Amino acid sequence: xxxxxxxxxxxxxxxxxxxxxxxxxxxxxxxxxxxxxxxxxxxxxxxxxxxxxxxxxxxxxxxxxxxxxxxxxxxxxxxxxxxxxxxxxxxxxxxxxxxxxxxxxxxxxxxxxxxxxxxxxxxxxxxxxxxxxxxxxxxxxxxxxxxxxxxxxxxxxxxxxxxxxxxxxxxxxxxxxxxxxxxxxxxxxxxxxxxxxxxxxxxxx
Length: 205
Hints:
Blueprint: H1 4-14, H2 27-32, E1 39-43, E2 49-55, H3 63-72, H4 75-91, H5 101-107, H6 113-132, H7 136-148, H8 153-168, H9 193-204
Helix pairs in contact: 6-7, 7-8
């Protein structure tokens, strides 16, 4: 939500040679159904979606990105994803990783009423946040979005990061990754990163 100036240091460190578009309003999330970062959408030269939103991470570039990967793990998964992507680039529609149109439609989940309501609350939270900061009204809309669509991590991480910056200032690039309360901290949201990880690990166990 912070816009291009927040993302610029990461883009610069990665040494990108292509345009980097910053979707500060999460418009593409709403249109395509993205619920986490990183998720990717494969779109071919004709503008046809050949893979709807799915997990896909490139290899880390830069010291900051490498530290994050070392903390959360999954380097092997990233290597596999890069190989899949290269296969599609080389083989196009013949790639075994490119889906047929009916498969893309099948994997594109219909949007429930609660998901639509969550998106509306998230948009209201962003709107009021830009006008008045992280007020009680903004937190209320964030929490409604989190409760209505609990698997949408992008909605949650934006709120958590906004709180971290408000309380601790923009000390360094890591402030925005502080997404759980410290001991004794008044945490205004219905969940945090640590709670979500515990839930995921419990389900996987």
